[in-house]
């Protein structure tokens, strides 16, 4: 529904979309994200990934899960809190980009110590993509209180999340990008494309980092290196990681 523009909105033509938001919706969508990701992971394991995952599970050992969880949690809170610590009112926070970067670092260090050179992240590609896509919808409906909103825009699809300003729906941009990647991945998995067994995780990281890097220009986060914010620097690091490890995977293949 479009309504007359409120004072302070930059939308053209005097009209923009007003979204009714509620911070409590974030928890609901978080639960949906975790539940749908777990269900998809179980489905994909039985459908296509069991043969790939079984020999990997035999090599990585039980401490792998601990390294993964520790890296994701530490990275999420470290990156998120560093970013919000630069704001006018510093406070702790968490970030999916930080979680992904932290998990990658912890797992690769663990694999290096154990001499494991194969990709172990293929089984997580579908669930992570779906979890991010659903979770970002929750960020959108949580409104400006979630602190993931976009910058003001004059585009006709600008949305008012409760502060009377038409903004880029950056949360939905990211959600759409992840749904798009997931669709391509599922089609390729159904066709038994080789990259879905050997390089899927690195390609996922590449796509995630590239699209997240782009959307960060549409967020009012503190800039710490010229025009770049913290998450763009993390994205650059993940892009180089994906390029290097994908090249190694192609050589081995």
General description of the model:
The chain has one domain (2-252). The relative contact order is 0.15. The chain has eight helices and six strands, in the order E-E-H-H-H-H-E-E-H-H-H-E-E-H. It has 253 residues and is an alpha+beta fold. The longest helix is centred in the first third of the chain and has 36 residues, at 25-60. The strands form two sheets. A four-stranded mixed β-sheet has the order 1-2-3-4, with no helix packed on it. Strands 5-6 form a two-stranded antiparallel ribbon. It has helices spanning 25-60, 63-84, 96-114, 125-142, 170-190, 195-198, 200-216, 230-252, and strands at residues 2-4, 15-18, 159-160, 166-167, 223-225, 228-229.
Summarize the structure.
With 253 residues, this protein is an alpha+beta fold. It is built from eight helices and six strands. The N and C termini lie far apart (52 Å).
Structure keywords:
8 helices; 253 residues; disordered N terminus; alpha+beta; 4-stranded mixed β-sheet; 6 strands; two-stranded antiparallel sheet
Note the topology.
Layout lengths: L1 E3 L10 E4 L6 H36 L2 H22 L11 H19 L10 H18 L16 E2 L5 E2 L2 H21 L4 H4 L1 H17 L6 E3 L2 E2 H23 L1
Helix pairs in contact: 1-4, 2-3, 4-5, 5-7, 7-8
């Amino acid at each position: 529904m479009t309504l007359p523009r409120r004072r302070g909105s930059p939308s053209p033509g005097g009209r923009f979309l007003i979204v009714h938001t509620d911070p409590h919706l974030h928890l609901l969508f978080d639960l949906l994200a975790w539940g749908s990701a777990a269900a998809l992971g179980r489905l994909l394991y039985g459908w296509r990934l069991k043969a790939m995952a079984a020999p990997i599970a035999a090599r990585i050992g039980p401490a792998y899960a601990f390294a993964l969880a520790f890296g994701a949690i530490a990275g999420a809170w470290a990156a998120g809190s560093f970013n919000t610590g630069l704001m006018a009112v510093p406070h702790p926070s968490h970030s999916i980009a930080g979680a992904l970067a932290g998990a990658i670092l912890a797992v690769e260090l663990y694999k290096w110590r154990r001499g494991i050179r194969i990709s172990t992240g293929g089984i997580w590609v579908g669930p992570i993509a779906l979890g991010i896509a659903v979770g970002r919808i929750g960020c959108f409906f949580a409104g400006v209180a979630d602190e993931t909103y976009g910058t003001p825009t004059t585009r006709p699809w600008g949305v008012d999340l409760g502060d009377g300003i038409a903004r880029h729906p950056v949360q939905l941009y990211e959600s759409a990008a992840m749904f798009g990647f997931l669709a391509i991945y599922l089609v390729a998995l159904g066709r038994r494309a080789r990259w879905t067994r050997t390089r899927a995780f690195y390609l996922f990281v590449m796509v995630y980092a590239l699209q997240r890097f782009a959307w960060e220009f549409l967020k009012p986060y503190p800039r710490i290196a010229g025009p770049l914010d913290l998450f763009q620097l993390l994205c650059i690091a993940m892009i180089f990681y994906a390029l290097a490890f994908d090249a190694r995977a192609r050589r081995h293949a």
